[in-house]
Every structure is written in C-alpha cells, then in structure tokens.
Specification:
TIM Barrel; 38% helix; alpha/beta; binds zinc ion; 349 residues; 13 strands; 2 domains; disordered N terminus; 12 helices; seven-stranded parallel sheet
Amino acid sequence: MKIPGMWQLRKLSRKVGKRVQGLVAPGTLILMYHRVAEIGSDPWGLCVSPQHFAEHLQVLQKLGCVVSLRQLQQMLENGKHPSRSVVVTFDDGYADNLYNAKPLLEKYNIPATVFFTTGYMNLKQELWWDELDRLLLQPGTLPSVLQLKINGEDFSWDLGNAATYTQSEYQQHRNLLVWQENLPSLRHRLYYSLYKLLYPLPTNQRQEIIDEILTWGSLQPEIRETHRFLTLEEMDKFQPSELIEIGGHTVNHPFLSTINYASQKEEIQKNKAHLEEIFSSPVVSFAYPHGDFNPDTVKILQELKFSCACTTNVGRVARKCSPFELPRVQVENWDGNQFEKHLSMWFKE
Ligand SMILES: [Zn+2]
C-alpha cells in the first residue's frame, strides 16, 4: 500500500548533517509546516511549538536566505539557477496559523505561503485524522471489539486491555508517532491501521466509516479549540501582503489521483474561486493534498492559470525542476540548533 509522500519524510529527517555555514550546494529548500501549536498528542508530528518556530525564524533571519514562493517561481521561469535559499509554506489552514505563526512571521519579517483548504471553514467536526486522535489517543474507555466492513472486506480488532486508556498511559505515550515501528501502544497501532485503510477511500465513503467508528466509541460531536480551522472571518485577517501569499489546497483535501478529472477540477477550481473572492487577489500557487496528484492534476492547474504547485516529495528545488512538481521538506518540532542541522543536511543531499 502506498503511504502518502508526506509521511515518508520522517526517515530522511532522522539523519543529522553539518551546519549550513560554508556549504555551497545550490538549490532552494521549500519548508513544509502545518501547525504552530502545542497540543496533547500529535500522532503525525505536525506541530512545531511557538518557541521552536520562533527559533527557526531566527535561524532563517540570521542566514538571510528566505525568498517567497513567488520569487522562486519567477527564478524558475527565468531559467535562473536558484541560489541556496529557503521558502516557507504552511498547509491546510489550522487556526493556529493566524494566532501563532503569522505574528512570528511578521516579527522576523519572513515571507510565507499558506495553502488553504476552503471546505474546512464550515466543518461540523474535526478532520478525520483528528477525529481518530480524539477517539483513540485520548484517555477513556472504548468497547473491546471494533468490526468494520471496508470496501467489501470485513475487519475486526480486539483492544483487550487497551480498551481502557488511562491518564498515565496517555502521558506515557502521547508523544509517540504512529508511523514508528514496534509501537508499545495498541491504541496507536489501531490508529495507524485505520488510517492506512481509510486514506485511499473517496471522501464520502471515508466519512461514513469515520461516523461509524465514532458511533462505536460513543464519541459526541465536538471541535476542540486546539484542532479547529480558521473561520471565514479569521481568514479575512490573513490578507495577502508582501509577507503572506495565499495558495490553493482544494475544497475537501482529497487524494486527487483517486478521483476523476471533472471531480479534480471542481475541487481545485472552487477552492481557487473561493479564495480569490475572500482575498480579492489572484491565487496562482497550489499544494497537492497529501502530496498526491497525477498528470490530470497538473493539466487542470495549468488550465486554471496556476503557476506552480508544491508536492511532498523530499528534495531541493533544482534549476530544471518542473514548477508543478516542487519538492519540499517537512519541518518537525526541533529547536533552533536541530533545525539548523537539518537545513544543512537537506542542502547537502
Ligand atoms: Zn494538507
């Protein structure tokens, strides 16, 4: 089973390299952030704490190497070899982007592109992977056996003693990342099994199963303050400027390669139109949800006058890189020193 590119990045990030100073390797690194927040459990490692994010920005400011995505795109268009530089991007549009990330970007004068998923503004529940976290990775008691039919196939899991997840187990395991091998927590293993089964499904089908799982766990509808997305009014405060560029990220965050041409186009076009209406500004950059796309996706982006798109493929942007296949690197919750070491490693590879 193919795991989305986004999650493949961890392997690479475990290596540690030398410091940035003195390196001559050309190319641009596009950093991929999702959230600037501190939350109880973060099974994918999507959160960077505000303190660490400030330290990342201090490193970038010291290195003086940040360009905007628009500048990078122009460099590629002009056939210029990108110099050793860094672009900052955010995916999805969690509320902490406005309250925690934006003030720090302004403080350190670092430009960033934020890719918004417009369907998230009106969600009546949390995102499906956050719902799984709320159900499985928070303390509480669940029924012992979960049985599901997914794509005509029957699945059954027995939680045994893990039916009850105590506060102390939660404290002990809350920093586990679900893709790690030999996880000591059955709750985390179940989370990952369900994630792998659910992610390839069409949005509606996936939601039906999520609802079934939530009913099984008697979980009441709730959107945690720590896991909500920006409202329309809040998005309005994210006005594009010299520092902030707004990019597209579809309406419903689907795996684009799994849906037909017309559905892909609708996802991308409606998102672009909505963002342009909110911000009264053209939206020309895009990030593929889950890093997933196919040749149709690129064709649609070109038809809709997008000028570039970011993937989750790991790497540096080189001179001949297609503007619709820009690689990125995922940033984790490192302190400033660790962040600088990873920059160095990425520039070298
Ligand atoms: Zn996303």
